[in-house]
Design a protein that fits this description.
It is a single chain. This protein has one domain: 2-Layer Sandwich (BirA Bifunctional Protein, domain 2). By secondary structure, it is α+β, with helices and mostly antiparallel strands. The chain is globular, with a radius of gyration of 16 Å. Strand 12 and strand 13 form a beta hairpin. The two termini are 23 Å apart. The longest helix is centred in the middle third of the chain and has 14 residues. Strands 1-2-5-9-8-7-6 form a seven-stranded mixed β-sheet, sandwiched between helices. Strands 12-13-14 form a three-stranded antiparallel β-sheet, with no helix packed on it. The protein has four helices and 14 strands.
Length: 212
């Protein structure tokens, strides 16, 4: 996988998609920065990217990923791969369903995944050194470059979805005090949520998928 560093960019994901469409880059490819000015967040929100934190986007072919990885499971899958890298430095880090990094009860990062032309395109932002009020910081004793290098090793030698799901299911109980939006964008409690093997959840008889 080719790794490319940018001193500053509005959005690593926008940069990646634009250059992929123009055929200026060839998958597998990862771009990262510590200064992002207009990142993409969940549900069309922007992600406030304070300078010094880690922002990355990558593109990989579906055929290079595990055969049992479904598109709707991708955000959990890629989040867990990076979590395993970061957790070695901070044991309090966990992944909230379906795509957020948390330290205890504070969000410190997130993942956005899309699918284009048989490729996964994934963008991740993590607060490493600072955060806006109300957000958490994933304090790690290593530099962004080392994090990227270790993350790429996991992408190049990917675990099966079954293995990653097993690890994720162990900590799913931490979601019980949170809420999620259903298909009608209604806010519903996760207190009774049950995790399915494809990464979706069941609440009050309704199956809810991660579509980001």
């Amino acid at each position: 996988m080719q790794i490319h560093y940018l001193d500053e960019v509005d959005s690593t994901q926008k940069w990646l998609i634009e250059n992929f469409k123009k055929e200026k880059i060839k998958p597998p490819f990862l771009v990262y920065t510590t200064h992002q000015t207009n990142g993409i967040g969940s549900r069309e929100n922007s992600w406030i990217g304070n300078k010094g934190n880690l922002f990355l986007s990558f593109i990989v072919s579906k055929e290079d990923m595990p055969n049992d990885l479904k598109i709707e499971s991708a955000s959990i899958y890629f989040s867990m791969l990076l979590k395993e890298v970061l957790q070695k430095q901070n044991s309090a880090l966990w992944v909230k369903w379906p795509n957020d990094f948390y330290i205890d009860d504070k969000k410190c990062g997130g993942t956005i995944t899309s699918f284009m032309k048989e490729h996964f395109i994934c963008g991740i932002g993590v607060n490493l050194v600072n955060a806006p009020d109300g957000f958490g910081i994933c304090k790690v004793k290593t530099d962004p470059q080392s994090i990227i290098e270790n993350f790429v090793k996991k992408l190049e030698n990917p675990l099966s979805w079954k293995q990653v799901f097993r690890n994720y299911s162990v900590e799913f109980y931490k979601n019980k005090s949170f809420f999620v939006h259903d298909k009608n964008n209604n806010k519903v409690s996760m207190s009774c949520a049950k995790l399915a093997e494809d990464g979706s959840i069941m609440i009050n008889g309704e199956r809810i998928y991660s579509l980001r």
